Amino acid sequence: MRHLCLFFAACCITAHAQQTLRKPVASTDTQSKKRVVDEVAPIAKTVLETVDVDLKRLTKAKDLSIDNTLYTLHFLHLEQRLHEALKGKQLPVDPFAVSKGVAFATTFQTFRGLFRDSEKLRRFMRDTHTQATTKGVIVDMTIMPWVFRQEGGIESLERRLQRMGITKVARYQHVISALLPYGKIGDLTRIKAVRVLRAAQAKIGPTSRTHPHYGARPIVSSLAREPRAGREGRGGGPSAPSSKSGLVTSEGDKAMGTDIVRDTFAVNGSTLRCIGILSDSFNFLGRQEKLIASGDLPENIIVLQDIDEVLDMEEGVEPTDEGSGIAELIFDVVPGIPALAFHTAQGGQANFARGIERLTSESKCSVTVDDIIYSAEPFFATGIVGQAVNKVAAKGTAYYSAAGNTGTPGLFGRFNNVGRRTDVTLPDGSTVTYEFHRFKETGSIDLPFTLGPGVMSLFVLQWDQPHFTVFGPPGALTDLDILIYDRSRPLQLLFIGAETSFGADPVEVLPIINPFVSPLELNLRIGKYIPPKQAGTPPGPDPNLIALVDMANDAVLPTRSTSPTSFGHSNAQGASAVGASFYANTTNFGTAPPLVNDFSSRGSFPLVFRKNGSRIVPPIERQVVKFVGPDGANTRFFPSRSYLPDVDLDGDGNPNFSGTSASAPHVAALAALIREKDPSLTPRQIQMLLMETADDMNDPATPGFDVGIDEKTGAGFVNGPAAFRALSSRRAYPQEAELATSSLDYGRG
Ligand SMILES: [Ca+2]
Ligand SMILES: [Ca+2]
Ligand SMILES: [Ca+2]
Ligand SMILES: [Ca+2]
Predict the structure, then answer these.
(1) Residue 242: its pLDDT value, please?
(2) What GO molecular function annotation could you give as one example from this UniProt entry (predicted)?
(3) Which of 3, 46, 498, 723 could crosslink 693 through cysteines, CB 3.0-4.6 Å?
């Protein structure tokens, strides 16, 4: 009921905003505006002036690239300040309804009043994967390289930022992650050292709530058990007798055959030092002691950094302790492990990258797993998080990463310039010029799609130009934007993603929402932005490759079902990306070969840039998803939030943890057992052993059974006993393989 009210209220606000859109209010009502402003507190005047200045300063700003989510939060915060200053008085003209850049952002209109409604804030954070509080938001900012050469260097800049009230500062290479108070965004535009400023959007949580069944088949009735009452004291469940892993044992253990491996090969992880985990939080809900007491977690939990060190805990901030759920799964497979170590992957990309290194350098973990993807991580290059993964892999850490839960097809292919310029009229009457991409799927510049009621999409568009954030100058040469229209009224622009990319990152991240109770029929356009002549910036060359992914998984695009969607550091050479099969759909539970979950992300974007930023011709084809592990298995408490889907899949009273977030730790734990059996193996050799002994699976999106490696399931479902038999029967292992290069065909536009 509460959700219905929220949608309804949002609907009214948006309908009002749309009326305003159809009949733009001329900004000439200056006299009456001035009269009212004179009557209210001076702060209202300041806010109104700030709105005008910031709209000019932040829209296609030349020296600072700011992302759509941060831009929206900035103006939502100004709206809050105006609300406070007016104390209930009304302005004759609503500056947020008619101003360029704000007026037609339906998301902005829907989330008006965000800072006085904790339910709205919670929803915004959840849907946009933003790490925000009422006071500030975690950002990633990329610093100009000359800062490191000037007197005082980067430390001097960090001190300056801290004097501005920017806290929780973590740096990795030339990226600074920090908690930015909302009022300071304007001030940052005056610091020439900061080139890219972006809300740190980290996807957490098992899967999208609109995929309730994950493509999994119904569970056979023999698995269903009577639900147990209450969350405490329940247990029992189908525990494997050979494990000392507490009240609940993951069925993933049986699915991988690691229960047999422990008994047959006398391994349990006890000779290893620790396994590292990176996720959102570990002990925010305060369940750690109970889980240790019941034997579901080891006694030695090393928390290097939990989420409260990067974000102020307040109403609306809802960490899920996914790290603890991951730890439960690992401990079921490796019950002898002396310690598990945790570092939050939130707090920005720089904080994530530092955490990856600390788990190896400080905690000496020889196996590490994470389940977080940042929206701005590169598709076609190895970003800073991926570089951290490669660094620890080179030091011997076997690194496992969730392939992602973005199974809904994205878009991938060549940029196909339609060859003519189009002026797009904005609500204030000004025009912006684009050269649009013609979609080969439709033969036109429109890509139709549907957005279900009440859901949000998080579009990530990238193209094959160098990221400033990864390589420094020159950055991207071309600026692509996303424009989304109402299909029934083709001139009505409902959303625009217009980050500045010149000299910055070839990235456009756009959250959109459908606040209505019925589906929205929309058209998506991708435009190459043509700056006005007086701006002095050339429009740049057409990119070669473009790709679009909906991280929220809620938009149904008419694109090829074989388009890749797995991106970021799980694609790094040092990582093993893991896909997911529901445990009940695996061989040891009666389904052979196992069935992959629909939502499990698919590989593989090619690698276009070397570490030094130079272009690889032709691009290197990467096999990203290495293998599939089990998910949907029982834990004692996770998922810990009611909005996370299908809490108890098998009806036995214990919540079931779904997604590649759950499959990756299972496989990491199997890798730890292999590492214990033969400590001489390199991470790459462990990966190859698991691939060679996996049970082949089918990619359902391609015709026929895909014999051997495929982009959805990699080498197939990991097989613990087969891996250990191969290990015992063989003396030598292949040397590290070189990456093969090949000529790729992405299809003609
Ligand atoms: Ca852009
Ligand atoms: Ca269950
Ligand atoms: Ca296959
Ligand atoms: Ca197939």
Answers:
(1) 44
(2) serine-type endopeptidase activity
(3) 723
